[in-house]
């Protein structure tokens, strides 16, 4: 089938699923360079997850990566473009004007792990526990890795999903490419038993990725979605 018809057919299929993200994914997946990139970053994500499991002394080191290797894994890639935006003045009289505009608002990634690459234009910032924002130095030759909400749940809070945002640059375009490694929709998100101890009882109720996604997409970008699945004090189990 000619490439164009294939894309058209997949576009229609994705539209039926009513997911604009999958439209991007399905279209991109036709391009072999993108497919090869996705495969490479998926492998990187899996290796990192195996090392994390090992670091947590979980005997089954593929306990997390298995979810991403699954044929039904709900992973996706997003390409972001932030055109240059002139600096904004909050107050007409104040000077100098030094407010970069927010290109992508504060949030944590809902999936397991994110592998991000960007061009050499900065903008990404992460939030520390005290609420301070720290800029990430852009480097097109390196990957930036974000822990997602699901990994926080599956490690009972040992790895914490990072809140981040992206600012626009006043004179240059920022481009970034994020691979979000996610599990199959019906995957049950639970903590390996070795991580739960009497002193560190389970923090979250078990849930499926489909349930989490439904809850997440009903909330605002910056909302803390994991809080919905947090055990109440007397529900915590060791
Ligand atoms: O462009 C960036 O560096 C951040 C992108 C991002 O946070 C996202 O795509 O979820």
From TrEMBL:
It comes from the Eukaryota. SUPFAM superfamilies: Clavaminate synthase-like. The keyword Ribosomal protein does not apply. Keywords: Iron, Metal-binding, Oxidoreductase. The keyword Oxidoreductase applies. Signal peptide: none annotated. Gene3D superfamilies: B-lactam Antibiotic, Isopenicillin N Synthase, Chain. Residues 72-183 form the Fe2OG dioxygenase domain. One of its GO terms (molecular function) is metal ion binding. Belongs to the iron/ascorbate-dependent oxidoreductase family. This is Fe2OG dioxygenase domain-containing protein. It comes from Populus deltoides (Eastern poplar).
């Amino acid at each position: 089938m000619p490439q164009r018809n294939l894309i058209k057919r997949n576009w229609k299929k994705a539209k039926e699923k009513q997911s604009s993200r999958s439209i991007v994914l399905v279209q991109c997946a036709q391009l072999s360079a993108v497919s090869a990139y996705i495969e490479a970053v998926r492998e990187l994500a899996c290796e990192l997850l195996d090392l994390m499991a090992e670091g947590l002394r979980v005997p089954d080191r593929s306990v997390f990566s298995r979810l991403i290797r699954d044929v039904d894994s709900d992973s996706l890639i997003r390409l972001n473009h932030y055109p240059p935006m002139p600096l904004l003045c909050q107050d007409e009289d104040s000077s100098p004007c030094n407010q970069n505009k927010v290109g992508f608002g504060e949030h944590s990634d809902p999936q397991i792990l994110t592998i991000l690459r960007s061009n050499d234009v900065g903008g990404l910032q992460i939030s520390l526990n005290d609420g301070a924002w720290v800029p990430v130095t852009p480097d097109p030759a390196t990957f930036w890795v974000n822990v997602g909400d699901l990994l926080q749940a599956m490690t009972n809070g040992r790895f914490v999903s990072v809140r981040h945002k992206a600012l626009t640059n006043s004179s240059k375009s920022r481009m970034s490419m994020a691979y979000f490694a996610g599990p199959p929709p019906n995957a049950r998100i639970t903590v390996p038993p070795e991580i739960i101890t009497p002193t560190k009882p389970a923090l979250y109720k078990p849930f499926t990725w489909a349930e989490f996604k439904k809850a997440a997409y009903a909330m605002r970008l910056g909302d803390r979605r994991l809080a919905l699945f947090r055990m109440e004090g007397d529900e915590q189990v060791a």
